[in-house]
Specification:
This protein has 365 residues and is mostly helical. The protein folds into two domains: 168 residues, no CATH class; 139 residues, no CATH class. Helices cover 72% and strands 0% of the residues. It is built from 13 helices and no strands. The protein is globular.
């Protein structure tokens, strides 16, 4: 904030940057409240959103020339390559670590895509979008590191070779492709482009040998398509809530089953908590979003188990994360709930600020 006060920004730009920082502070206040309430994954997600905005403003104030921006993008590129090299050489032990590494690999690919967009904006002379995407890419790569560190903390069991997942990944991609093809034949590809993009990302992960990430990408695309079909034409909140409760119960059963198998389903706990937060907000859109995340929680729990049947469990699964000795730099909002990963996407605050400011600030010179 002091850096902004001493900058030479014009009044309009200064006002919007100041408002962005105020909103980031509000996000951090929400994160503190979520932490007090024991909603750990929500805490980290809100922290992540705030960090993107703060870094965007900070870097934008630093960039004055083409050389400044080019060096910034190169530094982010180095960070991505270093992280990718480290994570690709991890030895995966057990399914808990496998889930976390899959989440990490997805976030690396997202960071690479964001940086590609940043370079495109740079060559177009659009400083604002270039810095915005670079900041997002940098924070996304921090979440990749975070998930990898969680995976190492929960590493337990036999070594899982990445190549052993190839056949499973192919099956997931093929099954998901069938459903996506069916639903696009009903609604058209233009209306479901995000689902198609998600499937294409999964195919890209597969071609690059990132089979665990391909599995989860295909799973996410299929679940989103199934939710569309399952809720088609239903605008009665009571009916949707009945469907939601069945999905929630299935997610509980799956999580407990995974724990009985000696697995700590890190991603599943995260998805389950996000689903609860949307369920508690109510409304048709939030209910549908909660459905998506409960299904994510269920399937990520059992995706590698030999059996998916288990006794009916009625108690809430215990949602905990390892005690932190230091505050992590960032975390995910899954696949994130990331804005590009769901057809019911709720655009994070940082992107909304970017859209608004992009129109007003444009190119900085």
């Amino acid at each position: 904030e002091n850096k902004l006060k001493t900058s030479n920004m014009g009044y309009t730009t200064y006002s919007y940057l100041k408002e962005a920082l105020n909103e980031a502070k509000s996000r951090l206040d929400e994160a503190k409240k979520a932490l007090e309430d024991g909603r750990y994954y929500t805490t980290l997600s809100l922290d992540f959103q705030a960090r993107i905005t703060i870094r965007h403003v900070d870097w934008y104030l630093d960039v004055e020339t083409d050389a400044d921006l080019e060096n910034l993008l190169k530094n982010v590129d180095d960070e991505i390559k270093s992280t990718e090299n480290t994570i690709s050489n991890l030895t995966i032990r057990g399914i808990s670590m496998l889930q976390a590494v899959a989440a990490s690999e997805e976030r690396i690919e997202q960071a690479k895509s964001l940086l590609k967009d940043a370079w495109s904006a740079y060559y177009d002379g659009n400083y604002w979008d270039a810095v915005s995407n670079a900041a997002f890419a940098y924070e996304r790569i921090q979440t990749a590191k975070f998930w990898a560190s969680l995976g190492e903390r929960y590493a337990k069991g036999d070594v899982i070779e990445r190549e052993s997942l190839k056949e499973t990944a192919r099956d997931y991609l093929d099954n998901s492709r069938l459903i996506i093809t069916y639903i696009t034949s009903m609604f058209g590809e233009v209306n479901l482009q995000e689902l198609i993009n998600l499937m294409n990302e999964g195919e890209g992960y597969y071609q690059d040998g990132k089979y665990s990430a391909a599995i989860f990408s295909a799973m996410e695309a299929r679940i989103q398509a199934e939710i569309i079909l399952d809720t088609l034409g239903i605008d009665n909140e009571t009916i949707l809530m009945d469907k939601l409760q069945r999905m929630k119960e299935d997610a509980k059963v799956a999580i407990v089953q995974a724990q009985k198998e000696g697995i700590y389903p890190i991603l599943s706990f995260s998805y389950y908590e996000f689903a609860q937060s949307y369920e508690n907000q109510g409304g048709l859109d939030n209910i549908q979003t909660a459905m998506v995340f409960y299904q994510y929680a269920k399937e990520t729990s059992t995706v590698f188990l030999e059996t998916t049947s288990s006794p009916k469990i009625i108690e809430e699964p215990s949602i905990t994360i390892p005690t932190q000795t230091t505050t992590p730099q960032a975390t995910t909002s899954p696949t994130q709930p990331e804005p590009t990963k769901s057809y019911i996407s709720l655009i994070p605050f940082a992107l909304l600020v970017g859209i608004v400011l992009g129109f007003i600030v444009g190119r900085k010179s």
